[in-house]
Amino acid sequence: MPRAAGGMEGRVAERLRSALGPFGFEVHAFKVGWYNAILQPAFHLPYPDDTLAFVVLSTPAMFDKALKPFVNKEQLKIIRDPVDQCVSHHLSRVKEKFPDQKVDVIFDYEILPSRKPKFLAQTAAHVAGAAYYYQRKDVKLDPWGKKKIYGVCIHPKYGGWFAIRGLLLFPDIQVRFLEQPAPVDCVSTEEKRIELLEQFNFHWQDGCYRDIIEVKERYSEEQKAYFATPPAERFRLLGLTQEAQRSTFH
């Protein structure tokens, strides 16, 4: 029987932050109904509107605090993308912190049989107040005509130097009175929003869109090099193939 929660959200959030924060992750609470309300039914999460959920972000610190120790410890067990496997390891371990609760985990890389993603990561980050999802509709004088323009989330502290990694859902916790926080509108001028969407859509490889605001922390040069490398070659950077002469971590 689902339980109504008064301070339950705060207690769950605190436990999640103590479990994930030291590894460079952030968690932000939301109600499933906030997410479902702004999406087409095909993208709805199949839970009641008041269900407690959290969106999980990785910050620049995750590379050193989670990925590198994970790779060093689990070298022989890494069989797919090391970041995905590292995130999966940490989010799956969270379940152990809630032995009396059902916890569902959805990862950002999971897709449905229809090939649609299991959840829309940027929408989840926006409704949880974690990062502002800037889209074409946020620009009044649209300069792009018939071009397809994709939106992008900007974090008030990290700009574009972060990633949305997954959702944690608590089907047995209903948070009817949870108040929705607004995401920080840190790219507030028309000119800057156009610049952001231009950079993200047409020059995303150079990563300049990530610095659209003054950031408190960004990826290290090592981390930038890792994510700029094609996925198939990242194993070598981490010292995970026989061809690698040395591990980048020694």
Question: What features would you describe in this structure?
Answer:
This protein is α+β, with helices and mostly antiparallel strands and 250 residues long. Helix content is 32%, strand content 16%. It has 8 helices and 7 strands; from the N terminus they run βαβαβααβαβββααα. It has helices at residues 8-20, 32-36, 62-74, 82-94, 121-127, 190-202, 221-228, 231-237; strands spanning 3-4, 25-31, 51-58, 104-107, 132-134, 152-154, 163-174. The strands form 2 sheets. Strands 1, 2, 3, 4 and 7 form a 5-stranded mixed beta sheet that branches. The protein has a two-stranded antiparallel sheet with strand order 5-6. α3 (62-74) packs across α4 (82-94). The longest helix has 13 residues, at 8-20. It is globular and about 50 Å long. The protein starts with a strand and ends in a 13-residue tail after the last helix.
Secondary structure topology:
Layout: E1 3-4, H1 8-20, E2 25-31, H2 32-36, E3 51-58, H3 62-74, H4 82-94, E4 104-107, H5 121-127, E5 132-134, E6 152-154, E7 163-174, H6 190-202, H7 221-228, H8 231-237
Helix pairs in contact: 3-4
